[in-house]
């Protein structure tokens, strides 16, 4: 089974949502509904075409691209497309810590920290410590 290319951004989901870069942005009512139903938001970054799901209800923002991590590793054209998207993300958020990882690795973290770890600021901070101890082929800091 292949897992999604995933990102954890050190910015609250609500702030990511109101940055003006998420298209379409969620309304306050929709954010409340996302929290109540434990759902994610579908969107794109302004001026890009890659679709993603975003967790907007936490102390960090989690993004899942539709791109599979194994395809990202194997195909140069996909790596270029994702790299262009990442460069846009970095341009938008130049000072925010951004980690790309295999969704499988995120699932390993969730086993340790709990399904809703991203809503706890302390656990969100610990994620960044934990990720650095994981195999480098499964994650990278986006700089």
Question: Short summary of the structure?
Answer:
The protein has 143 residues and is of the alpha+beta class. It has helices at 13-17, 28-37, 69-74, 76-92, 103-113, 121-131, and strands at 4-9, 22-23, 41-45, 52-55, 61-68, 98-102, 139-141. The chain has one domain.
Secondary structure: elements and pairs:
Blueprint: E1 4-9, H1 13-17, E2 22-23, H2 28-37, E3 41-45, E4 52-55, E5 61-68, H3 69-74, H4 76-92, E6 98-102, H5 103-113, H6 121-131, E7 139-141
Antiparallel strand pairs: 1-5, 1-6, 2-3, 3-4, 4-5, 6-7
Number of helices: 6
> What is the CA–CA distance across the termini?
29 Å
Radius of gyration: 14 Å
User: Ranges with pLDDT <50 over ≥5 residues?
Assistant: none
Main sheet: strand order: 2-3-4-5-1-6-7
SSE string, helices as H and strands as E: EHEHEEEHHEHHE
- Helical content (DSSP H or I, runs of 4+): 40-55%
Main beta-sheet strand count, sense and barrel state: 7 strands, antiparallel
Overall shape: it is globular
Q: So what's the oligomer here? A: single chain
Q: How confident overall, as mean pLDDT?
A: 94
Q: Give the total of domains.
A: 1
Report strand %. Answer: 15-25%
């Amino acid at each position: 089974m292949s897992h999604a290319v995933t990102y954890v951004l050190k910015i609250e989901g609500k702030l990511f949502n109101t940055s003006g870069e998420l298209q379409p942005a969620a309304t306050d009512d929709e954010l409340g509904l996302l929290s109540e139903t434990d759902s994610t938001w579908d969107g794109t970054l302004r001026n890009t075409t890659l679709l993603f799901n975003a967790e907007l209800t936490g102390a960090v923002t989690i993004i899942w691209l539709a791109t599979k991590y194994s395809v990202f590793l194997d195909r140069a054209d996909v790596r270029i497309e994702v790299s262009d998207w990442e460069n846009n993300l970095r341009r938008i958020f130049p000072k925010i810590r951004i980690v790309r990882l295999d969704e499988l690795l995120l699932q390993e973290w969730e086993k340790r920290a709990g399904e809703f770890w991203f809503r706890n600021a302390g656990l969100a901070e610990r994620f960044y410590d934990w990720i650095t101890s994981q195999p480098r082929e499964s994650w990278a800091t986006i700089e």
